[in-house]
Amino acid sequence: MIFRVKIVVNVSFSLGLIMNLYSGLLYLVCFGAVSYISVEGGFFDVSYRNVERLHGLSDHVWFLLWNRFHFCFLTIPVVLCCRGLWKALRQKITILDFHFLVVFSGLTFMEVVGTYLIYVSYFQNLPENEFLKKVLRIKAYTDWATLPMLAWVIAWSRHVRRGRYLRRNIIVFAIAVASFFLTIIHSTMYAFLITVTGLLSNIAIYEFYKIHYFRSRVRVMFWTALLANILFCSTSLLGSLASCGWTLIYVNTISLMIMSSALSIMFVKVLEEVNQHKL
């Protein structure tokens, strides 16, 4: 009898894990499909027509070095997801907690891939018109991924503080995705969107800290995530308003990875502690 109960529990857990993993991937697939069709359809070509070729990338030694850094950045979201899956299988975090980690890591991965493709494009012998068209579309896709990623910080913070609200999460994600179409009106609309979304994400991180400040190592991770997020949003804002150099792009990418890593580890750690007290 006990053996049968264990089988039922394991089957139920496995099905729940598969369903939540599927729902998390569904967010990413829907965003990927909408953004790919819209960007490749040329909807945002007018908004990003002022993209210029940046100079100062002739050093192939630095190119190889940054490639290695970027490869490490690409593996970080994957490693964090595997770490979250391991904790979910051991029931240290719930399946719903893992769902939030999957979506956040997936959006971070998309943005890092976009930045890497822009960087690699500078070392391809493409005609000027073809080069600018390729870069502006990848940049549009990368900028677009930033909005739902920051919006998901708001949803994830609320989940840690109050529990999961499926309908509200869908609305927040949908608004963040749909808002990027405002850039069709004028390119500076993205500066407004990144400012609002970045501000709300920082508030969400602080609201989380007000409740869980007493937990071990949370203060260090909080300040790391908050400052890195402020730096990431600031460099994204500057990059949208004026042509920036590669130094700003490097800082933007590094701050993104620090923020996403610190935030993921902090949220998962707190959720793990909360779930232990429930057992």
Question: How would you describe what is shown here?
Answer:
By secondary structure, the chain is mainly alpha-helical. It has one domain: Rhopdopsin 7-helix transmembrane proteins. The chain has eight helices and no strands. The longest helix has 39 residues, at 2-40. The protein is globular. Residues 1-11 have low confidence and may be disordered.
Quick synopsis:
By secondary structure, this protein is mainly α. The chain is 81% helix and 0% strand. It has a single domain (2-278), classed as Up-down Bundle (Rhopdopsin 7-helix transmembrane proteins), CATH 1.20.1070.
Gap between N and C termini: 23 Å
Helix content percent band: over 70%
What is the architecture at the second tier of CATH?
A: Up-down Bundle
The secondary-structure element order is: HHHHHHHH
What overall form do the CA principal axes indicate? globular
Number of domains: 1
The CATH topology annotation reads as: Rhopdopsin 7-helix transmembrane proteins
How many DSSP helices?
8
Class by helix and strand content?
A: mainly alpha
The Rg value, from CA coordinates, equals 20 Å
The CATH class: Mainly Alpha
Question: What distinguishing features does this structure have?
Answer:
disordered N terminus, 279 residues, mainly alpha, globular, 81% helix, Rhopdopsin 7-helix transmembrane proteins, single chain
Blueprint (SSEs and pairs):
Layout: H1 2-40, H2 60-89, H3 95-121, H4 128-162, H5 166-179, H6 189-212, H7 218-241, H8 246-278
Helix pairs in contact: 1-3, 1-4, 2-3, 2-8, 3-4, 3-8, 4-5, 4-6, 4-8, 6-7, 7-8
